[in-house]
Amino acid sequence: MASIVETLTAGRIDVFFLLGSNILSSFSDASALERSFERVGLVVAYDIFMNESIRRIADLILPGTIWLEELGLKDTATHIYLMERALQPEGEARPLMRILRDLAGPLAIENFFPWQDEEAYLNTLLTPQRTNEGGSLTLEQLRQCGGIWQKSRLSHVAYPDHHFHTPSGKVEFWSERAQKVGLSPLPSYTPSQDRTGARYPLQFRQGRTITAFHAFYDEGRALPSLARANLEPELWIHPLDAQQRGIVTNCHIQVYNERGSIRTKAKVSEELQPGVVWMRDGWFGVNSLTSGNPVLSPQASDIVDPYMLPGGQTAFDALVEVRKI
Questions:
Q1: pLDDT recorded at residue 79
Q2: Are residues 278 and 286 in contact, defined by beta-carbon separation less than 8 angstroms?
Q3: What is the pLDDT of residue 177?
């Protein structure tokens, strides 16, 4: 994330594709990010619902297809599931892969999609899965199995041989690799470096709920069943912090810091620690509060498995103050 924002801010991007991403709701330091899009010549959005990013920065909107309109695979930790095409796309909606393939030709990007069709592409993805006969699994065989396949050579116990993906092959509490790139060799807690005294005394945290996933489906409001459970943003605050500010449940408040602010309703709750406030993520404006500083330096990122912890991830750290409106 940090490198994407850096490239945008430097004005090095002419065309930007938003491929199912509500970027202004999901990226940190969103106010600064939105300003950086003024330097992009063309912003194209591909999605199945409108969202705040599309409304604010997109120049061209392409209707996307949903998974029922495509042939694909669902890959979980233990199984692979075949997703057959059940519906034809409505109107001019096209699968994303087709759009990118159609662009690759005029742009002379060779071997972008070196397969004859989607089925050949999916067969390649299935190659590591071995059948009882020793051959590679194919779509046709997956269909014969009812569309469900337990992954080959999968152990239900992690690291059953007790050999771990570390230089020593052991669990490493002391990491010489971390020490070489300037990190603590032992797990440690680093307090926020942008503390500004008493101006912003509350630690801001955000997370998911069962009725919403990040900023998908226009922040949970595009589908009526989800919208009923996601009426408006709500900030949880401990009774001690609420009492100091004259805040009660359901009163309107402003959450702010040096980066931005958001208006929301309050929910006073003892489920938080004093000094901490919490909100469901995905609401537009939430990430106007958060820091876009990278979690790790580029050197430290190189030693981290990107599938375990993406080194390019931003901090999403924030110290805030809350006042009653």
A1: 92
A2: no
A3: 83
All residues at 6 or more sequence positions from 117 whose CB lies less than 8 Å from its CB, including other chains: none
For the entire predicted model, the pTM comes to 0.81
- How sure is the predictor about 307, in pLDDT bands with cuts at 50, 70 and 90? low
- pLDDT at position 178, please? 83
| Residue 254 within a domain | yes
Residue 277 lies in a domain: yes
Q: Which among 48, 116, 114, 123 is positioned nearest to 82, based on CA atoms?
A: 123
**HSE toward the beta carbon, residue 162, CA cutoff 13 A:** 0
Domain count, the chain: 2
Q: Where are the alpha helices (DSSP H) in 10-162?
A: 23-26, 30-36, 52-57, 96-104, 118-125, 139-144
Residues 6+ apart with CB under 8 A from 167: 176, 177
Domain of 286 in residue numbering reads as: 202-324
Question: Would you say 283 and 25 are in contact if contact means Cβ atoms under 8 Å apart?
Answer: yes
pLDDT over 90 for what percent of the chain?
A: 65
- Given a contact cutoff of 8 angstroms between Cβ atoms, the answer to whether 51 and 41 are in contact is no
